[in-house]
Amino acid sequence: MKTARGVGNLELREIDIPKPKRDEVLIEVAAAGICGTDIHIKHDQAFYTPPVVLGHEYSGKVAEVGEDVTSVAVGNRVVSPATAYCGKCHQCKTGHMNRCTAPDKRILGTSNANGAFAKYLVVPDYIVHQVPKGVSLEEAALAEPFACVVHSVIDKTPICPGDIVVVQGPGTMGLMATQIAKSMGAGKIIVTGVTADKWRLDIAKKIGADLTIDVQSESDPVSIVNNETDGQGADAVIEASGACVACTQALDFVKVAGHVTL
Ligand SMILES: [Zn+2]
Ligand SMILES: [Zn+2]
Fold first, then answer.
1. How many CA atoms lie within 13 A of 113 on its CB side?
2. pLDDT per residue over 190-218, tens digit each?
3. Cis-peptide, bond into residue 51, ω within 30° of zero
């Protein structure tokens, strides 16, 4: 639990099992991932409302439902997005529920709602999704970040079959972006990372990257991309590292009239 504002202030605390309200679901957490946002909150570099149990990338089983809940039942395997959106503000009504601007909105593990780094959490039933058969709960814990990458790559990045795509950063998001770009028909995928990312760059090669570049040890990564693109630059660059320097480099990697997704 993040107990107070400031750097650190993370504690293990005993808390009561939350009781679901009429329209809420009590979920017993099966698996949860650590997001970059959790790290930013640890370092006091992100929005949050302490005290709050962190963790918003998770899966679990329904342990109890409020009396008005009909969409799921006890025992169902479920996931949810992080934002319990209001459905009424301008952003919600224009299809950007993840950008809900209601001042009292709840974001699991961040603001006004405890998250999944606990045995149980409660969430409103309208954001709960059942996990399909054949998907393990460990895999399902990636549903929230995977949805973010599907949105940024499939919805927001115009990748055509044969396109050359650079993915910057081989973390969870970058590796998923690599797989999604591949599934969209990208002709060549180049994944960049720093020297400490070598093991992740090796994973990238196994799951769809045609080439990886260590941007720290290579003296001129831009020329490598240019050589791979007949001097044109990449059709699309997906910035998944979160590093400012990578944003600048994205503009060097991309072709004229190409597309950069941040
Ligand atoms: Zn996250
Ligand atoms: Zn809203």
1. 22
2. 999 999 999 999 999 999 999 999 999 99
3. yes
Q: How far apart are CA 157 and CA 199, in angstroms?
A: 27
Q: How many CB atoms lie within 10 A of CB 133?
A: 6
Q: How far is the CA of 44 from the centre of ligand 1 (A)?
A: 16
* Cα–ligand 1 centroid distance for 68 (angstroms): 29
Reported as a single tens digit per residue, the pLDDT across 46-77 is 999 999 999 999 999 999 999 999 999 999 99
Question: For residue 27, what are the β-bridge partners?
Answer: 62, 121
Distance 25 CA to ligand 1 centre (A): 21
Helix, strand or coil, per DSSP, at residue 77 = strand
Beta strands in 3-136 (DSSP E): 24-33, 57-65, 77-79, 83-84, 106-107, 120-124, 129-130
For the chain, the domains span 24-141, 149-261
In CATH, the number for domain 149-261 is: 3.40.50.720
Instruction: Indicate the fold that domain 24-141 takes in CATH.
Output: Quinone Oxidoreductase; Chain A, domain 1 (3.90.180)
Residue 92 CA, ligand 2 centroid: distance in Å: 4
User: In the prediction, which pLDDT does 30 show?
Assistant: 98
- Give pLDDT, residue 104: 83
How far away, in angstroms, is 57 Cα from ligand 1 center? 6
Residue 12, SS3 per DSSP: coil
What is this model's ipTM?
0.94
Per-residue model confidence (pLDDT) at position 242: 85
- The tokens describing 23, both together, are 């329209």
